[in-house]
Amino acid sequence: MKAFKGLLFIMLGLVSASISAQTLDEAKVRSAINGFSTFADQGAYEYLGRLFAPELTVDYTSLFGGETSKVKREDLLKQWAGFLPGFDATFHDLSNVQVTVSGDKATATADITASHYLGEGFWAVSGSYDFALVKSDENWQISAIKINATSEEGSRDILAEAPKFAEANLEQRQARLVKD
């Protein structure tokens, strides 16, 4: 009987450790997903880059057509830095984040409303994101992102205007950084 209790104690300990590890990984995945939207909105590309795998799959076909593409993280960040800072503000509001971790891979989904403001112009897209992540050391990196657009509000016209202001706006924002 003592042997059975001892074995049961060990098994419960292993299950508990496994649940804790999965909970920690889920928390790290959620942090990466939420950081993705926050860093993009704040123009914190040096931090945003840490959240991406060296190469990732990007699928915005439901929004813009075209094809799914594989891109290097540096190229994606340059593209975003030449676009997102052109807006007066963006807000990628994530909710209902669902995470599944399986070893060194994870998937996540999140509902999204991405609002973009430029002067009097406004455009928002709503839908969901699908993410794939891989564990690198003890960190989780986004290896794929797909938007599933379901509705839009406002005018897409501001999307063509934003790049005209991106470089100047980014320089102004960088000048306001707190430095040593």
TrEMBL record:
Residues 23-144 form the SnoaL-like domain. CDD domains: NTF2_like. The keyword Signal applies. Keywords: Signal. Residues 1-21 form the signal peptide. Pfam families: SnoaL_4. SUPFAM superfamilies: NTF2-like (SSF54427). This is Mll0646 protein.
